[in-house]
Give the backbone structure.
Amino acid sequence: MKILSFADLINICKEQNKTIWEIAEIEESALEEMNVDAVRLRVLENLIAMREAITNGLKSDEKSISNWCGDDCLKLSRGYKIRPAIFGSIFEKITKYAIATAEENLRMGRIVACPTAGSCGIVPSVIIAVAEERQIAEEEQINALLTSGVIGLMVSNKVQLAGAVAGCQAECGVASAMAAGALAQMLGGNVNEVLQAAALAMKNILGLTCDPVCGLVEVPCIKRNAFLAVHAVTAAELALCGVESKIPIDEVVDTLKITGQLMSPLLKETAKGGLAQTKTAIKLEKKLFKKNF
Amino acid sequence: MEQKSIFSVISPIMAGPSSSHTAGAVRLGLMARNIYNKNFSKVKFVLYNSFATTGFGHGTNKGLLAGVLGYSVDDSRIKNIFETETSIKYAYEYVQDISRHPNSVDIIFDNEFIISGDSVGAGEIRINNINGFYANIDGKYDTLVITYKDKPGMISSVSNMLQKQNVNIASLHCDRDSKGGDATMYIAMDIPVGDDIVAKVSQLKDVFFVTNVRKLKK
């Protein structure tokens, strides 16, 4: 995509009187030398794979390598039946779908990296749960996924989306901004509201570290998918009421980048700091490594 | 700056849990398979640094094996590959070497052919050495790999042949062990060339061998 910043994106949407997803499919079709229908079909393939990951994840309680994780989604399914969530059925689905996908990921199941594998549950859970509960058509879901792709891409033009580069800000954090924008789009938000949602989500994850226990995509990654999916909903709701980020979105991205640079390498996917260096984490690591080496 | 696609953010559809340590591993294996392009009975993987330390928890070892056997990144069989795959012999070695990229591997086919590469993030990979020669193959383009005796005119002979077929060259890299010694040329092309061109290039004087390395599926 030729567009490199959110400011440019806003201008182009305004000049051409188009939504973000309309710009995305035109740009993508030029870049990938395929027609717009083919671009949308490719987005749909990803959407279908996301749905399948959720379906598989909901059914399974297979444990991960650490034998520590893998049954939380089942706990939610059972728990909500006995005591429905106070935020209602959409909340139940979002948290279940986010964890179902993240658990499927750690079982080496088939998922869609969005933007990364570790953050794969956030965007799908929000789009698919809301679409199901509000009967939103598939074409609208494709538009939402396209919108989220543009948001992730604008950030990735400035920051590599990897925990090793900028901490979890750049993985689950960016996924949450993508999901917030997608949701605002699905609920009828205009270009400004969509990007405000993304900005609000991103602003409130700044500084999020990447400290995976034993270096695995398990603790705290799996449950973080549910938390940041719900976080995205908060951002979209605020933006759709007209709440705006006082700091423009491009500056929030710059801040994310600089915060990532300021962050100690101990907190950037090295498993040498944070939760990864707690007593319990070290004990688990010793057990795991003894088993495998 | 190279323009990026939104599918660099959404995708790949892959077997989890890590785009760099799992999908990247499969793609490194696939690329090595495309480069070696021969049947093999044995393969050894030397995993470096983060690939060595956290690889087991990310299925890096399984992914590499799946790749050299031609599995796609989203193949659900990768998870159980150690139980199901008996057609070849395979071995792993785990090494710490800070001179190498954090996610790096050597893939050795039949004790004789060594391909080294890195997983550079988000499932993207780079092959950087083939049998001791510098390489720079990212799997995004069909690439001709030509080994030959270093001498004037080789680039123009090869590029002339490509021009006649209207093949546009996206990038070209050369390396040699010494002046007049063994040299390797890598030509990334916008469209793939046929076997006829490979045969013609092979027949050029002082060309040792030519491999037509196919790009990876998106």
Q: What stands out?
A: Chain A touches chain B through 54 residues (CB under 8 Å). Chain A has 13 helices and one strand.
